[in-house]
From TrEMBL:
Record carries keyword Oxidoreductase: yes
Any one GO BP annotation for this protein: ergosterol biosynthetic process
Family under the similarity heading: Belongs to the ERG4/ERG24 family.
UniProt-recorded name of the protein: Delta(14)-sterol reductase
Top-level division of the source organism's lineage: Eukaryota
Length: 484
């Protein structure tokens, strides 16, 4: 008997094939980025600019391919320190003081409790690194180790994300059905995470809020912990690594790499300082925890989002006061929209009678909730996405028309930048091609936000029905006012 329309699973991300492509394609892309835009011969590697005469052995030399092949992608040393890093994050979560808060109401009627201290944890770690840098400068072992073992650290984190996704997937089958739960058991499956297809469920996440109890450390909410702690701090640490690397290569540090690192650190620290707002986001409230979030939190964010500083470490750019001011204006506009709109939403959800929001117009839905049609949320349905996207531009703009080639010492190329070891860096024929790497984040982020908007629209249409259609007629624009 053929399945009815109701029996046909509704998939996102292209279904099982799309989930498999993302699960193994995105890690491959990060490895490609690492090799193609490198500190050995250029960004892109010279041979990539002449694909018709491409020679594999020459290309392997140009991209810094490990001498022992694929074995060189992984090392016990890098893996051990990666696991130690996660353990440190867990220890700081347990021992540092934090605020106890409840999450939103679950489908089973309960509320999970969260300990929030990611900001304190990050500041504690950065204080140690700052002290080490003050004492040892750019040769502080943390910075040199990360720079020298970047490939192996990338591999270790990819494998850890795979392991974590597999662990929570297998463990999710111990979630009891509603009628078989003991009092106080708040475990439940994510609404869209148990389709019955292994690869898809593994990717999207079966359990909504998986939690583990570790010896001496107690209970940890895996999703909230991974979302806000090791990956975001890793992003800052990688940027600091590349600042130190630029100093070791050239003997100076440029305003562009400092600017990018500072604004990205501010983005991270602001998000961690506002950690309570995370508890009302789609990631926490709706999505299960699978490879999608595990890889995104632990690998994609720190290793992709630090691409610009990795580039600038080898090809320094000076912005000057005018350049800094111009890019700063874009950043300020994006941050203002993002922060004020999210703050307004969070206030309205937690206390609609708060003086700051009680005057706002809204639609009272049949589902019992209210949809704002005023203030920031009367401008666009996801005005916060627009602000978030604007903030991504200052990450890439400091790299300019990116692209460089590294020449041997003594070449004497006109307009070249000389490293302390004598090697010379020029834009040359690579000029512009490096933008594939340094501006990729902007394009990717736009696609991600548009996709999130589509997912949210679909979920809200099911939840609110006619009220959602009424809402869309009032708030016409999805993300960008008057454009999209």
């Amino acid at each position: 008997m053929a399945p009815t329309k109701q029996q046909t699973p509704h998939y996102e991300f292209g279904g099982p094939l799309g989930a498999a492509a993302i699960s193994f394609g995105l890690p491959t892309l990060l490895f490609v980025f690492n090799f193609a835009c490198n500190d050995v011969t250029g960004c892109p590697a010279p041979s990539l600019l002449h694909p018709k005469s491409l020679d594999l052995e020459t290309l392997k030399h140009e991209v810094g391919w490990p001498e022992n092949g694929l074995q060189g992608f992984l090392s016990w040393n890098a893996t051990g320190w990666t696991l130690a890093y996660y353990l440190l994050s867990a220890v700081l979560y347990r021992v540092l003081p934090g605020t106890e808060m409840e999450g939103v109401e679950l489908a089973n009627g309960g509320r999970l409790k969260y300990k929030l201290n990611s900001f304190a944890s990050t500041m504690f770690t950065l204080a140690i690194c700052a002290a080490g840098t003050f004492a040892q400068g750019a040769d502080f072992p943390v910075w040199t180790f990360i720079a020298d073992n970047y490939l192996q650290l990338l591999t270790a984190n990819v494998l850890f994300a795979y392991f974590l996704a597999t662990f929570v997937y297998v463990r999710s089958f111990s979630v009891k059905p509603p009628g078989g739960r003991k009092p106080g058991d708040l475990r439940e499956l994510a609404a869209g995470g148990h389709k019955g297809n292994i690869i898809y469920d593994w990717y999207i996440g079966r359990e909504l809020n998986p939690r583990v109890t570790l010896p001496l450390l107690g209970e940890i909410d895996v999703k909230e912990f991974m979302e806000i702690r090791p990956g975001l701090l890793g992003w800052i640490l990688l940027n600091c690594t590349f600042i130190a690397k630029q100093y070791r290569l050239y003997g100076f540090v440029t305003d562009s790499i400092v600017f990018v690192s500072v604004i990205q650190a501010f983005y991270v620290l602001d998000g961690q300082f506002m950690e309570p707002a995370l508890l009302t986001t789609m990631d926490i409230v709706t999505d299960g925890f699978g490879l999608m979030l595990a890889f995104g939190d632990l690998v994609w964010v720190p290793f992709l989002y630090s691409t610009q500083t990795r580039y600038l470490a080898v090809h320094p750019q000076s912005l000057g006061p005018v350049g800094l001011a111009s890019i700063g204006c874009v950043l300020a506009a994006g941050f203002t929209i993002f922060r004020l709109s999210n703050s307004q939403k969070n206030t309205f959800r937690t206390d609609p009678n708060d003086p700051r929001v009680k005057h706002l117009k809204y639609i009272q839905t049949k589902a019992g909730t209210r949809l704002m049609v005023d203030g920031w949320w009367g401008i666009a349905r996801h005005i916060n996405y627009f602000g978030d996207w604007l903030q991504s531009w200052p990450y890439s703009l400091p790299t300019g028309i990116a692209g460089y080639t590294i020449l041997t010492a003594g070449t004497g190329a006109e307009g070249s930048l000389k490293m302390l070891d004598g090697r010379e860096v020029v834009s040359g024929e690579a000029r512009g091609w490096g933008m594939i790497f340094t501006y990729f984040y902007i394009v990717y982020f736009a696609v991600l936000l548009i996709h999130r908007d589509g997912r949210d629209d679909e979920k809200c249409a099911k939840k609110y029905g006619d009220d959602w259609e009424k809402y869309k007629k009032i708030v016409r624009w999805k993300i960008v006012p008057y454009i999209y």
